[in-house]
Amino acid sequence: MNGVFDLGGTDGMGRVVTDTDEPVFRAEWEKAAFAMFSNCFRAGFFGIDSFRHSIEKMDAAEYLLSNYYEHWVHVIEDFGAQKGVIDVAELEKRTRYFLDNPDAPLPERKDPELLAFVDAVVKAGAPAQRESDKIAKFSVGDTVTVTADSPYGHTRRARYIRGRTGEITGAHGTYIYPDSAGNGGPEAPEHLYTVRFTSQELWGPDAAEPHDVVYFDVWEPYLTLAS
Amino acid sequence: MAQPSSPTDTRLRTQEEIAARVKALESMLIEKGIMTTEAIDRLAEIYENEVGPQLGAQVVARAWTDPEFKARLLADASAACAEMGIGGLQGEDMVVVENTATVHNAIVCTLCSCYPWPVLGLPPNWYKAPAYRARIVREPRKVLAEDFGFPIPDDVEIRIWDSSSELRYWVLPQRPAGTEDLGAFELAALVTRDSMIGVGPVGTP
Known about the structure:
Number of strands of chain A: 5
Strand order of the largest sheet of chain A: 4-3-2-1-5
Helix content of chain B: 40-55%
Number of strands of chain B: 4
Distance between the termini of chain A: 28 Å
Oligomer: heterodimer
Shape of chain B: globular
Helix content of chain A: 25-40%
Mean pLDDT of chain B: 95
Structural class of chain B: alpha/beta
Radius of gyration of chain B: 20 Å
Low-confidence stretches of chain B: none
Shape of chain A: globular
Distance between the termini of chain B: 51 Å
Mean pLDDT of chain A: 96
Number of helices of chain B: 11
Largest interface: A-B, 104 and 89 residues
Order of helices and strands of chain B: HHHHHEEHHHHEEHH
């Protein structure tokens, strides 16, 4: 989808503001929001692609201005409601309660399996590479052009590479396809490539800083052979 | 989400409002058997104290001192890191790119906030925020020089790696001069998080 989250090349975003002494979590609520991702992933709320697409559908102004982990909270509310786990009226009621009683205790519950899952998933990860018998259409060294269409659903075709031509520098085998998995479809694995674009190709001869390049990963359906 | 009462209202929450919202959500997820406060504390503990850029620094120092390891790291970073017991969530498929006298690399995720957690921990907020994501692919020299105080010489090619897939790029910085006598432990102390993102230098001995 053509959303504001697709920021590459956007002008007017201001200076990069760094903070040398920033803690990993700036507030207690950020820890809980962070943990909701893996806990709700385990509960089957979403895969990584549909998680990203839910963030992409946030209110655009809110996306740009809110704290990072608020994006994650949005996803948990979105899928919690969809899955019938979160009743929105009840959530509003409890939010008002905790606003008035910020130190009120949370329900107590133990779950050794969940605790074991946390350590296991951090260590093992959740690989996205998938076996497939699809034959790769392209190979390293091919010159390719990214399709220039604009799907409404989830895709990893950033606007700044659409219609642009580059050279394949890496061929990585088959991975979960975001344009299917991120839109509620099956994993439908596709071949994944890294493509090298020159700065001049992306931004034109006047705008580009000379002799710089951008590498961008693309799935096979995004590409056509250029020459 | 609070609905705006007029088109010019913002929907942004205060810290108190977001804290209450998260606590409300948390209470419901706990009751539904989906999470526990123990699991939250454990995850926070891992990324506050166990998984961070000190791990990437150990990998870099070993690559600087062990040419065969470096070759394996550049060929298959996840497999090479696994030799050191390093790997896992959001680093299942890592790719290390090497800085040289003629090439400087930096990483970004323009579409969201992808980052190699197993070697760098969780990303700093500026990496996830709009300004860096918007500009580093378009005017990398200007961003590095003006925003990070880290100018790259004109004759050095800048390569930006935009992690649009589950591949997780990170940078093997150049070993600083004058470190010939240092061992891997002392070298690791010179490796900064920013040097592995590509937006800052390594330290000097």
